[in-house]
Design a protein that fits this description.
The complex is a heterodimer of chains A (399) and B (261).
Chain A lengths: L1 H7 L1 H6 L10 H4 L6 H7 L3 H16 L7 H5 L14 H12 L8 H10 L4 H14 L12 H4 L9 H7 L3 E4 L11 E5 L2 E4 L1 H20 L4 E4 L6 H11 L2 E3 L11 H4 L32 E4 L6 H9 L4 E5 L10 E4 L5 H27 L10 H5 L10 H5 L1
Parallel strand pairs in A: 4-5, 4-6, 6-7, 7-8
Antiparallel strand pairs in A: 1-3, 2-3
Helix pairs in contact in A: 12-16, 13-16
Chain B lengths: L10 H10 L10 H6 L17 E6 L8 E6 L21 H12 L35 H14 L5 H32 L8 H34 L3 H23 L1
Antiparallel strand pairs in B: 1-2
Helix pairs in contact in B: 3-4, 4-5
The chains are: A alpha/beta (399), B mainly alpha (261).
């Protein structure tokens, strides 16, 4: 009976036109054919008969199956006459239904099938799976995020010794590289490395933060300089907070001592106490010398000797991170700390930036109330000739 | 002024002097700031803190029921310190240093295990209680043994160092064994569920090594050929060279025979 069906199947004929009734060829059909096919056609030995009967009896046992048993044991190629091959779950579930008449609503299998049949897009399925998955395991509450120090630096009042310790500010250099002028910042020697005293670091850091805040509150120009690889973002963030200026590339020697040549093309502007630009003074800025910072914060004084020297020549106070191998007299306010760890320098820059932010907030608040902590420049002063100190056209009047 | 450049430390004085002498027309904004918050006394040397090794023990003293905490300070050296070293920083010493060296001398491969050096807040020690060796959020390692041993020395009356070491070590070994079993079971479970772990590091290493051997064999064969050709070329015609060696061998054999006879 199977052979006849196969022959009538047009698909099969198309695929194997030469020998449709020959032994099933595994290589061409792809699916394993039941071996009983050929035996049925030519001879029926006893064993095969027994098998055949078993199959028939099984068929008899399950009369109520949706698909006739013949389709199950035949070639699995879908026939045009019969139903398409039914998937496994309904076939398995039906005997249970027969044996135990559970009402449809209570049967968990039915519910499961219903749930499966309810159309869910793959995206929704993934979502639900993810929701299930995320319920599992533990939740990590406090974890270290290196970006946190850059995004949200702490305030000077939040500085703790533990914070400094975690940032590694206490690690100095090898004892052989020390600068004896730093001896009062050094707590001891450990494994051949000088350990910087954390309480001294915290004290000097707070002092420096206070200076930054006060200078910012007096409307001073603050320059943050960190020219080491990787300090860029910390420097920019600190300058952003303190409304200051930043250098993360090389300090061009002479930028202070020879400012007209190097920074002459740079833009300057006149602002009022509320930081609003006053455009009417634009013309008066033409002959002005380049501006000088009121405070320089240097994250790596070892590489920026020229900058600090120029600050000394121009009488600009400086704040610097001083490691055990640096010279603390190069800067006005040293902060003894590890300057090789990016985390440590980022922390210190962030704290100083926050201090500057506080100062700026204070200054703007006072300005809104009509007060200033500094002596403002009057319009006539601004219009004076920068070289002679006389009002414009004053020389002509003199003559 | 000598070698020390005090310009940076004297910015305020310089600014005031320049203003007084008329070099600058007005004082900078920061003058009163620097006056209020003066720069630190950088160059004043202070005697650094002299760290001493202190040992803490709990001891029962005859006549009292309660054990007492006893602190033992390491004896001072007989030889006085050189005067030139008065202002030099001193080595930091802690009691657990010796315990640590001892542990890692006995278990050198513990140093080969990966370790977390990062501290997120610096307050990890607050969560630790060394009355037991396992700590939340800390991997079991040699440092756990050291800290556990130190806790025992501080808190158990009349305990000797070696006893404390043995207790801490035994706890450590037991947990390490359990870790091994956990790892093995997890691997078996994963394999049962169809995980494939790929070739092991040993297999990869052996493969690379055999590749290198094969390369060497090819190179050596080539070299041998080159050397053979060179010797042949040096002795004139290659056929002659081979013939002559053959005859030499034959002659030598004959001479041997003669000698034996």
């Amino acid at each position: 009976m199977q052979g006849g069906e196969i022959q009538t199947n047009p698909k099969w004929n198309n695929r194997r036109p030469q020998a449709p009734t020959a032994k099933p060829d595994k290589s061409s059909s792809g699916r394993p054919q039941p071996s009983c096919q050929t035996h049925l056609r030519f001879s029926i030995p006893k064993m095969i008969v027994r098998k055949f009967c078993m199959r028939q009896s099984r068929q008899l046992l399950a009369v109520s199956r949706r698909a006739p048993i013949s389709t199950r044991f035949q070639s699995t190629i879908p026939t045009t006459l019969g139903e398409p091959v039914v998937p496994a779950p309904p076939q398995e579930s039906e005997p249970i239904l027969q044996s135990e008449p559970i009402p449809r609503a209570e049967n968990p299998l039915i519910e499961m099938m219903n749930a499966q049949s309810q159309a869910k897009t793959p995206a929704q399925q993934e979502e639900s799976q993810r929701a299930k998955f995320h319920k599992l395991g533990t939740s990590v509450k406090t974890s270290y995020d290196p970006e946190n120090i850059l995004r949200n630096p702490p305030k000077p009042s939040q500085v703790t010794l533990e914070m400094l310790l975690a940032a590694g500010t206490h690690l100095g250099h090898s004892t052989s590289r020390w600068n004896p002028q730093n001896s009062r910042y050094i707590y001891g020697i450990r494994e051949g490395v000088h350990i910087i005293s954390l309480d001294v670091t915290a004290a000097y850091l707070r002092r420096a933060a206070k200076v930054v805040e006060e200078v910012a509150a007096r409307g001073g120009l603050i320059l943050f300089a960190g020219t080491r690889k990787g300090q860029k973002r910390a420097v920019v963030k600190a300058a952003e907070l303190a409304k200051g200026y930043h250098i993360f590339e090389r300090w061009i020697p002479g930028s202070l001592t020879n400012g007209e040549q190097i920074l002459g093309h740079c833009e300057t502007r006149v602002v009022n106490a509320l930081d609003e630009e006053l455009l009417e003074f634009k013309a008066d800025l033409a002959d002005r010398p380049s501006l000088k910072p009121d405070l320089v914060v240097c994250l790596n004084p070892l590489e920026n000797v020229v900058l600090l020297h120029e600050c000394g020549l121009n009488n600009v106070p400086t704040i610097g991170i001083v490691d055990t191998d640096a010279d603390p007299t190069r800067v006005t306010y040293p902060i003894p700390s590890n300057d090789d760890s990016l985390r440590a320098t980022a922390l210190i820059a962030g704290i100083l930036g926050r201090a500057g932010e506080a100062g700026q907030v204070r200054r703007l608040k006072m300005a809104r109330e009509g007060q200033t902590t500094y002596k403002p420049v009057s319009a006539t002063e601004l219009r004076l000739d920068p070289f002679t100190g006389l009002p414009p056209g004053g020389e002509a009047q003199k003559k | 002024m000598g070698k020390i450049n005090l310009t940076a430390l004297r910015v305020r004085q310089t600014a005031l002097n320049q203003f007084a002498s008329g070099k600058t027309s007005n004082l900078p904004q920061w003058v009163d700031v620097v006056g209020d918050i003066p720069p630190a006394e950088t160059l004043i040397r202070t005697r650094p803190s002299q760290h001493q090794l202190v040992q803490q023990r709990l001891k029962t003293i005859t006549g009292s029921t309660k054990p007492q905490v006893v602190f033992e300070v390491q004896e001072k050296r007989r030889k006085p310190k050189k005067p030139s070293r008065t202002f030099m920083p001193v080595e930091l010493k802690y009691e657990e240093d010796q315990l640590r060296t001892e542990f890692f001398r006995d278990h050198p491969w513990e140093l080969a295990r990966p370790r977390v050096l990062l501290e997120s807040t610096g307050k990890d020690f607050e969560h630790y209680d060394w009355s037991r060796i396992e700590q939340p959020g800390k991997r079991l390692d040699g440092e756990s043994v050291v800290q556990r041993q130190l806790w025992l020395l501080h808190n158990v009356p009349d305990i000797s160092k070696s006893t404390a070491y043995d207790i801490a070590r035994r706890e450590f070994y037991r947990l390490r064994l359990r870790e091994d079993i956990q790892r093995r079971v997890a691997a078996e479970e994963a394999a049962a569920y169809g995980a494939e772990f790929g070739p092991s590091y040993m297999d990869i290493g052996m493969k690379q090594e055999s590749e290198q051997y094969d390369k060497w064999v090819a190179w050596a064969r080539n070299q041998a050929q080159i050397m053979g050709q060179r010797t042949a070329a040096l002795s004139g015609a290659p056929e002659l060279a081979t013939e002559s060696t053959e005859t030499d061998v034959v002659e030598a054999d004959e001479s041997d025979e003669v000698a034996t006879q």
